[in-house]
Structures are given as structure tokens and as C-alpha cells.
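A quick aside before the break. I want you to see a complete sequence-to-structure record at least once, exactly as it would be stored in a machine-readable document. Don't worry about memorizing anything.
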Amino acid sequence: MITYILVEDDVLEQYLTHLINQDKTPTFFTYKIIYIGGAGNVIDLMKRNETTHFFSSPDNVIYILDGDKKEEYKNHKNVFFLPFKSVEKQLSKHYRNVNRDGLPEVTETYKGITEKDRIKRLYKDFTNQGYQRLAIMTNTAIFDFINENNKSEVEQFKNELISFLQRVFK
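That is the input. The structure line, written in C-alpha cells, reads:
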């Protein structure tokens, strides 16, 4: 049996894969993370799966959204939220702090665009500096940085996620 984890975007998919793989608990479960594209679409699929079971029974499907969606979707079953607004927003938050919280300076390529686009672009600037320029940090390094700087919240979230996955397979 497979547990499905539906998420908003590819960065969240990569982050969760990294987080689960870091866990020292033996994995007796099988899961598939699928990014859908936006919280509303994730919730729409959740509602359709409740009646059609096209992924699996509703108890075997988990939905993980960015933390900035918590107020909007907090009353739904099997919906979990990152302990921060999003991976990209958390990176931006650390980068905007005094001394960039130890993050290296990047060549910013997002002047004059919206805040949402600036946050996404900053993440891309870290991970892909463009033609013949090396990435400043890998996705894994960014995830580790965020986890290290948000230890207790991330650990609590990871424990809830692993507990859910293990419970499904008992």
C-alpha cells in the first residue's frame, strides 16, 4: 500500500523528500509525494479523493501545504502545514536579516518585480546562478540551513509527518 502526499509545488516536494530521508527511524512505509500546483488545487484533489478514492482511501492520503495557508485550510482532515510560511519565504526571511543570518550574498536578478516574485527569484538565484555560473547553494544545503535555524519547529513537524506515515502502515 502506498501513502500519497500531495503538496503545493516542486520545492515543497523536494523539501519533504529531504526531511523524510533524514529521519533515522527505519522506514517500513511506502509513499509518493506529488506536487499539484497551489493550495487550492491540493484541497480540490483532497475533496475529490474523499468521494472517488482515485489515489487511495482518504486515510492514506496526506496533504501538506505551506504554513501561510494554515488559517485558510486548518479545519481539513489530514492537512498538515509547514512550520514556516514556505521554504522560499523562510530563505528570504533569513537572507533579509542583519548579516543575512550567515547566508552568502547572491547576485540578485529580481529588481522591480512583486514581492512574491522576488522571493521565488531569490531562491532561484541561490540554486541556479545562470549560464556558466555555479549555484551558490544546493537545494539540500538550503533545506539544511532552514532546518538548522528552525530546529524545534521542524523537528515537531517531522515527527508528526513520520508518525502519520508509520500509523498508516501498522
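Two observations worth writing down. The chain is about 50% helix and 10% strand. The mean pLDDT is 88. We'll return to this after the break.
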